[in-house]
Specification:
Oligomer: single chain
Radius of gyration: 30 Å
Largest sheet: 8 strands, mixed
Structural class: alpha+beta
Helix content: 25-40%
Distance between the termini: 65 Å
Length: 593
């Protein structure tokens, strides 16, 4: 018999009545009732209420013991009276009468309470993460994460995928985020890079003749932190398949996501056939390529309206003449909303750095007219045209924004979310997935130079022998993102497996043949020896668990995250290294003046 426990703290019930048991765990709570001391004993599996009478010789010592001390108790299971049953606990039908106890691990004064889930500062929580992880909510989140990863592994095996591990020390990549660099002791002056993703390796696995690969891959990017992005490292379900088209990848991921989200959440999935939304349509209708489809509001392009002579809104008309766009959001049946509702949204838009949101409400007495600060600038005919273009009706309101395409997309997108929240239009009890497809192969950077818009290893759409390389901004790629509730879970692509085509595409982005050979020597060389058509994707584990746990911050589903400055406060990383270590690596630190 295990000397520390006969049972864990989550399994005793009335069937164990009168049994002598040994339990070990942390003191979660104490309640002193004078003659009786109640102790909630907690371990990984649950909580058991234990009780000791004042007549017991151990009472005084147990009364003084610090919360979160680890103890072992010997006691007897008794059934609770009907009025004291606690239905919130798995063990709520019983309690254990303590006969004796032993301290296994004493606890100092706590810097934060463990028995409650109240908010504490990030600094305290991360410095004492081992205590933070004992708290119920985050403890359950980390267990959920483990179960999700195990489930994914089983599903991938069922789907015929093989799990392989790719190298952690690799070469630096010129694309994407900043690399984490690792100096080489045996190759002075040269550096490894930690992989931003196993991109090239997983393609090489396909070239090696394996048909379906996956791994739960650690990825390293020297990026700033965000609510949905950890600084430094994250994990993704990395997968690749040979002899596939875009829809074959979609079929695998849709099946996996549906099974996964049904298994670990009671929320409904709105559509099990995920909509395919072209990138250009997403940017027009939602202002973003990460749309939250729980939000029913749609953005409309009303630029054309402001070229009409019977529209007198001169500020917008001048901007439209200089190339600006006008976007509109229609809210149904909001004519009876107080003026403060509209003014608050206008003020909010100004707080976001925009010039505000113009608005009016459509009404009809004898004929169609518009009520609101800018309503007087629209004729009956122009309003009827707006109604025709947007499906707006009498009683609906229209919010307008005007500016350069990128600016108007940004404010329209966040305004769409803000208005939907204010009107309580979002079904919080659902998941809505979609695919964003048909991404442009290239885009212009801030210096008006051509650059890859997504993954440079993607296959362009269309007849490969007849690509219009003279107009690269017209080229679309077999690139796709999967989005759920406005959260981008992953990007993926059908890969370019033809070296000559890769040279041509890289040349459009300013890379000559030698640069491509130098930077991607392993890839280019491998593709020259007979490569199958292949494609893949890599959904983020952290973001999937965030959605399933209904958390807003990735820190809440990550066991040992860093803070906003990419520091591990618990382990004091990054840290200063010794002169000897630097010498071994042929490094010399240059101090900032």
């Amino acid at each position: 018999m295990n000397k520390y426990r006969t049972h864990n703290c989550g399994e005793l019930n009335k069937n164990n009545k009168s049994k002598e048991v040994i339990l070990s765990g942390w003191i979660n709570k104490k309640r002193d009732h004078g003659n009786l001391l109640f102790i909630d004993l907690r371990d990984n599996y649950g909580v058991t209420q234990c009780v000791i009478d004042k007549s017991n010789e151990h009472f005084a010592k147990l009364e003084k013991i610090q919360l979160e001390s680890v103890i072992k108790i010997l006691g007897k299971v008794v059934e609770r009276t009907k009025e004291t049953i606690n239905l919130e606990l798995k063990t709520g039908e019983i309690e254990v009468v303590i006969v004796s106890f032993e301290v296994l691990g004493s606890c100092k004064e706590l810097p934060m309470p463990v028995f409650s889930d109240q908010e504490y500062s990030e600094e305290i929580r991360l410095k004492y993460r081992f205590l933070d992880l004992r708290r119920k909510k985050i403890h359950e989140n980390i267990i959920l994460r483990s179960k999700v990863i195990s489930f994914i592994r089983n599903e991938m095996n069922e789907l015929g995928f093989l799990e392989f591990q790719t190298p952690i020390l690799t070469s630096s990549s010129p694309e994407g985020a900043r690399d984490f660099l690792v100096p080489s002791r045996l190759n002075p002056g040269k550096f490894y890079a930690l992989p931003q993703a196993p991109q090239q390796f997983k393609q090489l696995i396909m070239v090696s003749g394996f048909d379906k690969y996956f791994q739960i891959a650690p990825c390293f990017r020297d990026e700033d932190a965000r609510a949905d992005r950890s600084p430094g490292e994250f994990y993704q379900l990395d997968l690749e398949m040979s002899f596939v088209e875009q829809e074959d990848v979609f079929k695998v991921i849709e099946k996996l996501m549906i099974n996964l989200f049904k298994k670990f959440s009671s929320k409904k999935i709105i559509s099990e056939k995920f909509p395919r939304i072209p990138y250009e349509e997403a940017m027009l209708k939602y202002g973003t390529d990460k749309p939250d489809l729980r939000n029913p509001l749609i953005i409309y392009d009303l630029t054309e309206i402001f070229t009409r002579e019977d529209v007198k809104f001169e500020i917008f008309k001048k901007l439209v003449k200089s190339g600006s766009k006008v976007r509109a959001i229609i809210t149904k049946s909001t004519s009876q909303k107080p003026r403060s509702f509209f003014d608050n949204i206008d003020k909010w838009a100004k707080d976001q750095g925009a010039s505000g949101l113009a608005y009016f409400t459509i009404e009809k007495q004898k004929e169609i007219s518009a009520k609101g600060p800018v309503g007087k600038f629209f004729s009956k005919e122009s309003l009827e045209e707006i109604m025709k273009m947007t499906g707006a009706e009498v009683g609906d309101s229209i919010f307008l924004s005007c500016g350069k395409t990128s600016e108007v997309e940004k404010i329209s997108s966040i305004a769409r979310d803000k208005i939907a929240e204010d009107l309580d239009l979002i079904d919080k009890n659902s998941f809505t997935f979609c695919w964003i497809v048909d991404y442009p192969m290239f885009e212009m950077d801030e210096n008006n130079k051509i650059k890859f818009s997504h993954n440079p290893f993607s296959m362009p759409q269309g007849d490969i022998d007849k690509l219009d390389l003279k107009n690269p901004l017209n080229l679309k790629a077999y690139q796709y993102d999967i989005v759920c509730n406005g959260v981008e879970l992953s990007s993926g692509a059908i890969r370019n497996h033809k070296p000559e085509l890769m040279y041509k595409l890289f040349s459009l982005a300013g890379y000559d043949k030698k640069q491509v050979d130098d930077k991607f020597s392993g890839m280019i060389n491998a593709l020259s020896y007979g490569a199958p058509p292949h494609g893949g994707i890599a959904p983020g584990i952290d973001r999937i668990v965030m959605l399933l746990a209904d958390e807003k911050n990735i820190r809440e589903v990550t066991m040992f995250p860093m803070n906003q400055n990419a520091q591990d406060l618990m382990m004091n990383a990054p840290s200063i290294v010794s002169e000897n270590q630097l010498k071994e690596l042929n490094l010399l630190l240059k101090k900032k003046k």
